[in-house]
Structure formats: structure tokens, C-alpha cells
Write a structure and sequence with these properties.
single chain; 386 residues; alpha/beta; Enolase-like, domain 1; TIM Barrel; 2 domains; 8-stranded parallel β-sheet; 3-stranded antiparallel β-sheet; 15 helices; 41% helix; binds magnesium ion
């Protein structure tokens, strides 16, 4: 067989920092966002193939903002990758980690653009490069952030009517208030809908979390996410032993080392993997591998990425058999952001359940709309770092 030689080198990385308002404030136990920053990257190569990526920084998770991501990419990460073959992802991840500690969203944006290039150069969708297409459709998830209970009930009923049969509900306030909310949601949507509760560390201490989860268990939760502070793995292990509902870790697990430690401490039943915490697809695959060998399923989460970053998450979910849960939805639907600068994701209704199709075009299979980027561009930052 003749080997097709693909000779590609990275020549430039461009950044486009934008800020898009939410239709409704995005409120969780630890933060409130009125708008969401996104940093799009365009990785150029000498072959004419260009890859796109997205950072969706969440300061309450990684300490990153629009300014830090933009600056780190241009001041530290771009120069260590110029001249590199974008197929050398392992090396790219090492070079970026050597160039600067932390800053996972900035690294994820560049790294998903490298996978986009590899896919475009080989003519394959990213999922086929990282494991294959285990599934070609993924059920969408609805739910509600912290808001007035009446509004939350209206929202979840609307979601279920649209075909969303999995709901993720933000909790982490007073245990009795949280349990009452879950009770009202269960009564409103019936038993055929899966309900997940995310406390975002809000119950703080194990005793309070155990109380809250026990109050909610009769309403049948599929899982409870991050009940207490991220660093208290012993406390999380205690909660896990005290309740029947599976406990998923999000804020506690960013890297593969965090995953190893959480598993050693027996602190989780499920691990929520997010590209903006792991620093990209390659490290997400590592976390999944560590979890799988320990018998722990994984969950594909997100920080509210638009279609570019969300497509990267969809490809991971599509590829991995051990990833059995996820948080996949069309960006900008209902309470989301005003406009999505990414295009290419498509929905399909299967037996009354709304699904997203896994993109089958080469690379991430989505495109960036420059007109929308232009509309929400932070010109001041763009001028400094272009
Ligand atoms: Mg979470």
C-alpha cells in the first residue's frame, strides 16, 4: 500500500475574543454570568488548511477570563507551536504545558484546532481519529440554572415538550429549598424523564450534602454532581458511602492526575470531563482511559461552548464507549446565548426525543461565521493581540 505523505506545518495562530450576552442570566451556586466570553482561534498552516478552535473560559473553574486566554495564546502558546506538524498532538500538548502552567481553556482552543486540521487533512471527522463513531446521534439535555421556581417549572415543561427527556437542574442552595424544587419538577414532568442535579459545590460540607441528597432521593435522581467543595475528596467519599444516588465530580477533576486521585480516594461514581478543564481532547481521552480501567463511566460536560467547542465535545462523546452520559445541546437554544457564531450542528427527532447528529464532515465539521464574530468582537483586545 502506498503511504500518502501529509506534510503540514503550523505558521500562525490568530485570536478573536468575543463576548455574547445571555438571554437570561446564567446563575449557578458559585457564579452569575450576564454574558459569556469566547475566544476563537484560527490555526493556519503552510498547506492552506486552517483549523478552528474555541475557548470558553469560566473564571470560577479555572481562573481564566477573555483577557488571560487571549494574552496567553499570543504571548506564550503561539510561539512554541510555530513550525510544528499539527499531527504531532502529543508533542503540542507537552510544548504548551512547558510554555505555561495551567490555562487549560487557552490550550484546549488551540489543540481542538489541531484536531480540526488533522481531520481536514485526512478527510475524516474528528471522532474517527480518536476512537471511531460509536454513536452517530446523541440525545439533547435540557434543564435550568438557578432562577425563580415558577420560571424553572415553565422552562422544564417547555424542554420536555420540545423532546428533551433528560434535565440537568442547578441546585446547591438550601437543602429543603433544593428538595422542594426537585419535587415540583418531578411532579411537573413525570417519571419518564431523567433528572440530574448539579450543586456546583454549594452544599459545602458533607453533612449538609447528605441531608439534601436524602431529601431528594425519593424523586429519583440519575446522579448528583459536585455536592461539596472541590478539594474535599474525603468528604466526597463520605457522601458517596452515605447515599444511593451516584455522585459525579466536576470541579474536583480537571486533569488526569485529579482523576487518578479521586478514584484512589473512592470519591466518585462518574467523572465529568470538560475540554475547558482538561486542556483539550488528548487529555480528555487520558482521563477517560484512567476512569475506564477503574470501572468508572465518564460524562461529557461543557462550559456553555458555542458550536465550535461543542462539536469537539460531541466528537469525544461519539467516539468513547465508556462515556455514557453527557450534556449536549444546541448552543443558543432557549435560555442560552443570543447568537451562535458556529454553524454546522444539526438536530433530529427520534421517537419523540431530540438528538444532535454527530458531524460527519472532515475535522470538527463546523464553521465559524466571521460576521457574528465581528459583531461581538472585543476590538480593544483584538487590536493588541492580532
Ligand atoms: Mg457541573
Amino acid at each position: 500500500m502506498t503511504r500518502v505523505s501529509i506534510d503540514v506545518k503550523i505558521t500562525e495562530i490568530r485570536v478573536y475574543p468575543v463576548e455574547i450576552p445571555y438571554k437570561k442570566p446564567f446563575k449557578i451556586a458559585t457564579a452569575t454570568y450576564l454574558s459569556q466570553p469566547f475566544i476563537y482561534v484560527e490555526v493556519k498552516t503552510d498547506s492552506g488548511i486552517t483549523g478552528f478552535g474555541e475557548a470558553c473560559p469560566a473564571y470560577e473553574f479555572t481562573g481564566e477570563t477573555m483577557g488571560t486566554v487571549t494574552a496567553i495564546i499570543k504571548e506564550r502558546l503561539e510561539k512554541c507551536l510555530i513550525g510544528l506538524d499539527p499531527f504531532n498532538i502529543d508533542e503540542a500538548v507537552r510544548l504548551m504545558d512547558r510554555a505555561t502552567v495551567g490555562n487549560p481553556s487557552a490550550k484546549a482552543a488551540i489543540e481542538m484546532a489541531l484536531y480540526d486540521i488533522v481531520g481536514k487533512a485526512t478527510g475524516e471527522p474528528v471522532c474517527k481519529i480518536i476512537g471511531g463513531m460509536t454513536r452517530n446521534v446523541i440525545p439533547e439535555v435540557g434543564g435550568a440554572v438557578i432562577a425563580d421556581v415558577r420560571e424553572v417549572l415553565e422552562k422544564v415543561k417547555r424542554d420536555v415538550d420540545r423532546g428533551l427527556k433528560i434535565l440537568k437542574i442547578k441546585v446547591g442552595e438550601d437543602p429543603y429549598k433544593d428538595a422542594e424544587k426537585i419535587k415540583l419538577i418531578r411532579e411537573a414532568v413525570g417519571w419518564g424523564v431523567k433528572i440530574r442535579a448539579d450543586a456546583n459545590q454549594g452544599w459545602i460540607k458533607p453533612k449538609r450534602a447528605i441531608k439534601a441528597i436524602r431529601l431528594m432521593e425519593k424523586y429519583e435522581l440519575e446522579l448528583v454532581e459536585q455536592p461539596i467543595v472541590w478539594w474535599d475528596l474525603d468528604g466526597l467519599s463520605e457522601i458517596r458511602r452515605a447515599v444511593d444516588t451516584p455522585i459525579m465530580l466536576d470541579e474536583s477533576v480537571h486533569s488526569s492526575r485529579d482523576a487518578l486521585r479521586a478514584i484512589e480516594k473512592r470519591a466518585c461514581d462518574i467523572i465529568n470531563i470538560k475540554l475547558m478543564k482538561s486542556g483539550g481532547i488528548y487529555n480528555a481521552l487520558r482521563i477517560n482511559a484512567i476512569a475506564e480501567v477503574a470501572g468508572i463511566p465518564t460524562y461529557m460536560g461543557g462550559m456553555g461552548e458555542t458550536s465550535i467547542g461543542h462539536a469537539a465535545a460531541i466528537h469525544i462523546f461519539a467516539a468513547l464507549g465508556n462515556m455514557v452520559f453527557g450534556d449536549i445541546r444546541i448552543p443558543g437554544a432557549d435560555w442560552g446565548i443570543l447568537e451562535d457564531p458556529g454553524v454546522g450542528l444539526e438536530e433530529t427527532m427520534i421517537n419523540g426525543v431530540l438528538h444532535i447528529k454527530v458531524p460527519e464532515k472532515p475535522g470538527l465539521g463546523v464553521e465559524l461565521r466571521k460576521d457574528i464574530v465581528e459583531k461581538y468582537l472585543n476590538r480593544q483586545l483584538f487590536e493588541v493581540y492580532k
